[in-house]
Write a structure and sequence with these properties.
The structure is a homodimer of 483-residue chains.
Chain A lengths: L3 H4 L3 H10 L13 E5 L14 E4 L1 H17 L1 H12 L4 H8 L4 E8 L2 E14 L2 E5 L10 H9 L4 E4 L6 H16 L7 E3 L5 H8 L4 E7 L2 H10 L4 E5 L5 E4 L5 H13 L11 E5 L12 H15 L3 H8 L5 H9 L5 E4 L3 E2 L9 E2 L3 E5 L16 E5 L4 H11 L3 E5 L3 H14 L2 E4 L33 H4 L2 E9 L2
Parallel strand pairs in A: 5-6, 5-8, 6-7, 8-9, 10-11, 10-17, 11-16, 15-16, 17-18
Antiparallel strand pairs in A: 1-2, 3-4, 4-19, 12-15, 13-14
Helix pairs in contact in A: 4-7, 10-11, 14-15
Chain lengths: 483, 483
């Protein structure tokens, strides 16, 4: 929903028409090695898409990528950053790291009374090779762009392999990238789309000796498969985890519940950052509205969700639609894992009758029942665990060490904040403290939050630090005498 | 041999006395988990050493390292850089990368007519965990310090595992580091020495789940073992390769031969950067002294080595001594791999009668006989390969793709320089062009050469780029509302 003030009054209609113009058409990209067409996307809103994408041979894409590389290297860090800026703006880190490398220097070594030795040294920034970016089904742009631009800006051709049910946003991006590259007189095969209809084709590409880096966002199973099998490549994996919130006490009970309700509803919990476990002491919490028992906290959170979703227009806008049949299945089987505090309901979408909209399901369980909440379950079925008093922080740390991207904390006690802060340093997770307003634990701000820490199994990289770009290129030097 | 002008007239004697004072003594470091003492070092100069080092349990060192970590994190990037500066100066890259991370910031999000959302965000630099630095037998300091300081300065405790025959330099370094740390009020167990008398102990430590990074310099066999087996750690490996020099033509024939002779003699070729194959066209080369046949080039290079080593004092100073019995064995078996152009000779050392000093052996072979030169053979036994005209550059590139750290080129033709430059960009190796003076292909200048490129199997990292430090720490953030 683009803001009319920022993007113009007709932006929403324009965007919709532009997307609908793609429906039922071939999405041609002028890529080499095309063996056929595929149309695999299924809209969670029940809209017929029928966009057909070129299925290209992986080896042909790699060959084309190699052929495109020297010209990309030749225009240098500044040229590449300029071209990438025309595609998108997120190349600042890559540019900074490359700018540290001097283009050339004259080196002198004193020789006592004799004239100094003088050498000219040239330093060439060389991309490490073909980059593969594997997108996910729920965030096809947000989660594809960091790897795409980090790899491209540092000198590497990029093959974009979108999720088979979220190809269009990637295909549009690839098309624009190819247009900008061609306009700049560069080989458009620096960016290609690998729309594969066979999972084996993705696996073959990921383990191809020429593929030197892989950016992956998605489920833990394929992420771990990539880390274990694509040993020829540097793998940057953003997976998922049991994000958790520790409630120790609060002086803003209602605002806390409102904040948590929004987090659990936003995009039906289909975010790698959404809270999956809420840890509440078994003997309850102190609040500005008096002592609240564990059961009261659970019930009040359920009520808060109900209130938030009372207006169907708000509900459908915030919940979005369930992207995958797997997630629908997880909602269906969730009641087996605990006591249902709030059941998931199907919500009709006024505009899209086929949309699969679901409200969150809320479970209660004992902290001792670890299998109820220790396993990551993507989607809107979080658990609220009853943990022994004062054990919330320890339990949270243990969960994070298994895998987590976000942790929240509610407390009125500075010493609890300090202890939790140190726990998150040890386990490696971003901490949000006492969120009661319009910021939510599952949201990362683009230029001031380190999304993904890269210290626990939920992610082996952050998307916004030097490590994310510095290892994607090498410096090849040459030197010779000068007078 | 310290310069008397720079280090004082008595520096050499002072240094010798300081080392001799260690002989036959326990080298105590006050480390935990000591199970015994070992004295494994054997001097290549035939000097009795008998220094006894504490053998400590790897798990005890890891436990002590973990206990030391929070205090190290607490003093921050500036504090760590300061302490490291007192131990050594090579921490600039690590400091630069850490300084990019703001300590804290206030973030505002406009809310239309309402007051903006304001959050305070804190960013903590957290070392990824225990670092293991595995030294080599020939360069126990130069090759240990980059990893040691990169890991330490970025927040990680470091366990130094020296080569069992080159412990003393590492032990002295560790002792100084521990003294400086303790003086700064920090836990000295941030730097410990792991003097192991069993190879299995090194393997167990390298694959320990708590070890998060490994810096290794040494042979390809153990380096590849580490890369394949220490999957829990980021491995920074500097191995060895078939460094090569392509001679296409020269306008300084004598100076070229002098330069190559010095390279082959320096430290008896026991450097990971020493030339192992010299590629000369089968039909000879153009020089300022007329056309020279392949055999003439070989013979003239041998004569140049003879002349350079004619003065025994120069010879012993430049050659050093053969560090390992394995290298002596490789010299003995080298004649099997080609035609001996110059035989290796044993040279008596005036001061150290037990020193194993050897002059370089020079072999001639055909380029087609790949097994003669394609395999890395550490030590002073390079091959001069007769390659079909104009194929030198292609062959060099193929060798580099297998593994190489340095390449040299002699040519008078700019187009050959250009072609070779592009070949080194593709294969990833540092190129030295027409070295005829006091700079040698096997030497890297500390602050202006990118030692190790990290693009071919000879090394998976450079010692002097952002990638060497940026992945050793993570940023853990926390955020909360502010008014």
């Amino acid at each position: 929903m683009p803001s009319p003030k920022v993007y113009g009054e007709t932006a929403q209609d324009d965007g919709r028409r532009a997307v609908e113009a793609c429906f039922g058409q071939d999405f041609d990209l002028g890529q080499p090695g095309r063996s056929g067409w595929m149309a695999s996307e299924r809209s969670p809103y029940g809209v017929e898409l029928g966009v057909r994408y070129p299925v290209c041979d992986g080896q042909a894409l790699i060959d084309a990528a190699h052929a495109a590389m020297p010209g990309w290297q030749r225009i240098g860090a500044q040229g590449r950053a300029g071209v990438c800026l025309e595609i998108l703006e997120a190349v600042a880190y890559a540019y900074r790291e490359m700018k540290f490398i001097p283009h050339e220097t004259v080196w002198e070594k004193p020789q006592g009374k004799n004239p100094p030795l003088k050498m000219k040294k040239h330093f060439e920034i060389v991309g490490r090779g073909v980059a593969l970016v594997i997108g996910c089904g729920t965030f096809p742009t947000w989660n594809t762009y960091p790897g795409l631009f980090a790899a491209l800006a540092t000198g590497n051709p990029v093959i974009v392999k979108p999720h088979q049910n979220a190809i269009l946003p990637a295909a549009i991006t690839v098309r624009i990238a190819r247009e900008v590259l061609a306009e700049a007189g560069l080989d458009p095969n620096l960016v290609t789309l690998a729309a594969f209809d066979k999972h084996e084709a993705t696996q073959a590409l990921a383990t191809h000796p020429a593929v030197k880096s892989i950016d992956f966002t998605g489920g833990n199973a394929f992420g771990q498969w990539l880390i274990s099998n694509a040993k020829q490549a540097q793998v940057y994996a953003e997976l998922a985890g049991v994000n958790n919130v520790v409630i120790e006490s609060t002086d803003q009970y209602k605002a806390m519940l409102r904040n948590l309700a929004f987090t659990l509803c936003l995009y039906s919990g289909q975010m790698c950052t959404t809270t999956q476990a809420i840890l509440v002491p078994a003997d309850g919490i102190d609040t500005d509205q008096g002592r609240k028992s564990y059961d009261e906290v659970c019930a009040d959170l359920a009520t808060s969700i109900d209130k938030f979703l009372a207006d169907p227009a708000v509900a459908t806008a915030v919940l979005g639609a369930i992207q995958s049949p797997d997630t629908l299945a997880r909602i269906a089987e969730a009641p087996a894992h605990g006591r249902v505090v709030r059941a998931s309901t199907k919500i009709e979408h006024a505009e899209f009758p086929g949309a699969e909209v679901r409200s969150p399901l809320l479970l209660a369980c004992d902290a001792a029942d670890e299998k109820a909440y220790m396993e990551e379950r993507f989607g809107p079925s979080p658990s609220s665990s009853r943990s022994p008093t004062a054990r919330g922080g320890d339990l949270s740390e243990r969960i994070v060490r298994e895998s987590a991207l976000t942790v929240g904390l509610y407390t009125t006690k500075p010493e609890v904040v300090d202890a939790m802060t140190e726990a998150t340093w040890r386990a490696g997770v971003a901490l949000s403290i006492n969120l009661t307003g319009g910021v939510f634990v599952n949201q990362s701000a683009g230029f001031s939050d380190y999304h993904g820490v890269g210290m626990n199994p939920a992610a082996n990289a952050s998307l916004s630090d030097s490590a994310f770009v510095a290892n994607r290129f090498r410096v090849v030097q040459r030197r010779h005498h000068v007078e």
